[in-house]
Design a protein that fits this description.
Elements: H1 23-26, H2 35-60, H3 69-102, H4 109-117, H5 119-130, H6 141-168, H7 178-192, H8 198-203, H9 210-213, H10 223-232
């Protein structure tokens, strides 16, 4: 199989948490639509990368070899970092910018409250993994997946409902420069993600083949920058990235633990 051919979805991280269809794909669009559909669809791509990463953790943990525990713990903490940094950026910049532009403070408070609904579970997730430092041999995948089960429903509901909340902003029309604010948010997200962990984690879980290659050129960064992220930044934790759902080109690859069972 050449590197441009998508693998059968059965082989990679498409379950147990299903992906969210982008509004653009749902409408059967391939070209530019309008700034609200574009922003909501790109937010959906971000959310799907986070779901794909979570699937890769949930599926592979039970089938690890003991010598893989340490790297897998590090990989899993990258997911937590990526999600945390994404929501922090929304609360500190994206949501306030939107509210300021339309003059409605508190407009997106429901989204922030949804963040709180799964915060305790995310804390348990990171606390468990960080608590294994120096005693990685004690890693228990069943325990980790149980923690994920405790918050994933609230997380999934939020990731889905936030897309609709962005679409609903279209009522403000040209009064809200959503394209400009979304571009600003994207810039902050890339620059604020932890350089050697969250950033490569994110790019290695963005599937360019999803929705018939609709997002093959997303995110809109120069090719050399993408190459640096997926080839150079990954050199700092080389053992982590075998667990990623996609290769350095953004094409899905078989899960590292595929075919194993305990």
């Amino acid at each position: 199989m050449n590197n441009l051919t998508p693998v059968n979805q059965r082989q990679w991280a498409d379950t147990p948490f299903s992906f969210i269809e982008t509004p653009k794909h749902k409408q059967g669009k391939t070209g530019y639509t309008d700034p609200y559909i574009e922003a909501a669809s790109e937010m959906c791509v971000v959310h799907n990368a986070l779901l794909r990463g979570l699937n890769s953790i949930y599926l592979q943990g039970p089938n690890l070899q003991p010598e893989e525990y340490k790297d897998f713990i590090g990989y899993s903490l990258c997911w937590h970092s990526a999600l945390h940094e994404h929501h922090t950026s929304e609360e500190e910049q994206f949501f306030p910018d939107i509210e300021k532009a339309v003059g409605e403070k508190g407009l997106l408070d429901d989204n922030v409250e949804e963040h709180r609904a799964f915060q305790s579970g995310l804390h348990d997730f990171s606390a468990y993994l960080e608590g294994l430092a120096g005693k990685e041999s004690s890693f228990d995948a069943a325990c980790l997946n149980s923690i994920i089960d405790s918050f994933v429903s609230a997380l999934y509901d939020h990731l889905k409902s936030e897309i609709q909340s962005l679409l609903d902003l279209s009522k403000f029309g040209i009064r809200l420069p959503i394209a400009k604010l979304w571009a600003k948010e994207g810039q902050r997200s890339v620059t604020s993600m932890t350089t050697f962990s969250a950033l490569p984690f994110f790019f290695l879980n963005v599937d360019i083949t999803h929705e018939s290659y609709l997002w093959k050129n997303w995110p809109p960064i120069p090719g050399p920058a993408r190459w640096v992220i997926t080839h150079i930044l990954t050199m700092w934790h080389p053992g982590y990235w075998k667990f990623a759902s996609c290769d350095a080109s953004g094409v899905p690859k078989p899960l590292h633990t595929e075919g194993r069972s305990k």
